[in-house]
Specification:
Layout (H helix, E strand, L loop, with lengths): L3 E7 L13 H12 L3 E10 L6 E5 L4 E8 H20 L10 H18 L8 E5 L6 H7 L5 E5 L7 H4 L5 H8 L4 E4 L2 H13 L4 E2 L4 E4 L2 E7 L6 H8 L2 H14 L3 E8 L6 H14 L7 E8 L6 H21 L7 E4 L5 H9 L3 E4 L8 H8 L8 E5 L12 E3 L4 H13 L2 H17 L2 H14 L10
Parallel strand pairs: 1-2, 1-5, 2-4, 5-6, 6-7, 7-10, 11-12, 11-14, 12-13, 14-15, 15-16
Antiparallel strand pairs: 3-4, 8-9, 9-10
The protein binds GDP-alpha-D-glucose.
The site of GDP-alpha-D-glucose has 26 residues, from helix 1, strand 11, strand 12, helix 12 and helix 13.
């Protein structure tokens, strides 16, 4: 049976907190590789004077991790540039933040070519290659150019944007044409798949057949929805540790009878943190009974702080939390506890566990694993209420949450009021349905669905013997 080769921008350290790879992707892939005799290939996060393509290889339990160093110019143009200043904002519907600079394009093309060149000698003919996320969309094309006939799949962790937005990207056709060098393309949600379908039919003049067969640019691919799940088993183990239980106790003391609303996010403009704070302010303004009885704990781990838009959102959040706290706080109560650091996953599980409401209100999100973590951390006999943005991929699976429009302060404020007042019976009913989904559609189910779909696509024809 062929090995699984996973390629992503960064390889993760899934069991360590902090560091640059905190994020849903690192968590999910760690679990995927344990199962297979896999190789995980990506950027080391380091830069060197001159790119050499030299690999550093570490063999761990069952999996091999291979990393390559890039140049400083690559970090600026490919990572901070095209990936995080062009594609990330565009794919999260922020064309106002999306920067279109030629040097970014060049950096993106160069690094994808470098990845392909470095990966090539590691490949065996029967390997399956699974490429992850927006940093590496053209990697499939670069591998094909070098004669790779293996089955190659691509999974997009972030949303695929609506056609009219996507068309604002210079060279958008070229990028989609490159997608057609993959055999299988996976999206988080029906919403993303249908946006891609719309582009292929109406902008690329292609066709979409039954069973997810897409044709355009004289080529075809298989596409489908593969919603990512939580590593539920590992998460529940974390929630059962001493560390989690110590945090539950510590938080209960600190609650002193008050109710806690929790948010946990990378500090990113796509997560709707400012809108969330304003909605919470709206709630406080109209619920005098809540003053001193409720507070919002927002853990926001700084992320991508070399990019100006992230420095700006951070400054805005500092200002808005300061303003709200200044206006509402009393000598022994602050309405928002705003924390800019990261916690270990077992600690987080403990903290989630005592929150009456999980407030997950991204403006756009591929999936959002925090919603699933909040559910998994709840005590079955007295679970809290999940409030979830309709613009997170997770909303397609988690209909028993209170689904809200994160752009409407009043709607989110109403949901907070409803959630805090919800009777136990209804909380249990909703939670049981949500938890069944979190258990069933976990990260293993996601991986198995994608990998078996990738194995099922027909192998490309081998080149004629020279
Ligand atoms: C991308 C897509 C998609 C956060 N703070 C801490 C911490 N976290 C962990 C959370 C959660 C993960 O980071 C965040 O995952 P999300 O899914 O919410 O969001 P992104 O990072 O934007 O991930 C997203 C995901 O990829 C997977 O496909 O769901 O839509 O944007 O697990 O708990 N972890 C620790 N300390 C923290 O302070 N240890």
């Amino acid at each position: 049976m062929g090995r699984l080769i996973v390629v992503s921008n960064r390889v993760g350290q899934p069991d360590q907190s902090g560091g640059p790879s905190v994020g849903g992707l690192a968590m999910a892939l760690g679990a995927a590789l344990r199962e297979y005799n896999g190789v995980w290939f990506g950027w080391s996060g380091r830069t060197v004077e001159t790119f050499t393509g030299g690999l550093s290889v570490q063999r761990g339990q069952g999996a091999t991790v291979a990393t390559v160093d890039l140049e400083e110019q690559d970090r600026q143009e490919y990572y901070n540039g095209y990936a995080n200043r062009t594609l990330w904002p565009l794919f999260h519907y922020r064309i106002d933040l999306s920067a279109y600079e030629r040097s970014f394009n060049e950096g993106y093309a160069r690094v994808n070519a470098r990845f392909a060149q470095t990966l090539l000698p590691l490949l065996k003919p029967d390997d399956f290659i699974w490429v992850h996320d927006y940093h590496l969309i053209p990697l499939g094309r670069e591998l094909r150019r070098r004669g790779v006939k293996n089955r190659i799949g691509f999974f997009l962790h972030i949303p695929w944007p609506a056609r009219r937005l996507f068309a604002t990207l210079p060279f958008h056709r070229e990028l989609v044409e490159a997608v057609f060098d993959y055999d299988l393309v996976g999206f988080q949600s029906e919403d993303s798949l249908s946006a891609f379908e719309d582009y292929v039919e109406r902008e690329a003049g292609g066709t979409v057949g039954p069973n997810g067969r897409f044709e355009a640019f004289g080529r075809s691919l298989q596409a489908g929805v593969f919603p990512i799940g939580l590593d539920t088993k590992a998460f529940l183990e974390g929630a059962a540790t001493e560390a989690a239980s110590a945090w539950r106790d510590r938080m209960r003391v600190s609650l002193a009878g008050r109710r806690m609303i929790i948010g946990v996010d990378r500090l990113d403009y796509s997560k709707g943190l400012e809108e969330r704070f304003l909605a919470y302010e709206e709630y406080l303004s109209h619920a005098p009974e809540a003053l001193e009885q409720v507070f919002l704990l927002q853990i926001a781990t700084p992320s991508r702080d070399e990019v100006a838009a992230y420095q700006e959102i951070r400054a805005r959040l500092d200002a808005v939390t300061g303003r709200i706290n200044g206006a509402f706080a009393t000598p022994d109560w602050v309405p928002i506890r705003y924390v800019n650091r990261s916690y270990r996953r077992d600690e987080l599980a403990g903290i989630y566990g005592v929150a009456a409401i999980g407030l997950v209100t991204p403006l756009r999100d591929g999936m959002n694993l925090v919603a699933k973590e909040y559910v998994a951390a709840q005590p079955p006999e007295d679970p809290g209420v999940l409030i979830l943005s309709r613009f997170a991929g997770a909303a397609e699976q988690m209909g028993e949450a209170l689904i809200v429009n994160p752009f409407s302060r009043e709607e989110v404020s109403d949901a907070i009021r409803e959630g805090l007042a919800m009777p136990l019976k209804e909380r249990v009913r909703r939670w049981e349905a949500l938890m069944a989904g979190v258990r069933r559609d976990d990260v293993d189910a996601w991986r198995d669905a994608f990998v078996s779909a990738l194995r099922a696509v027909p192998q490309r024809e081998l080149p004629p013997a020279a």
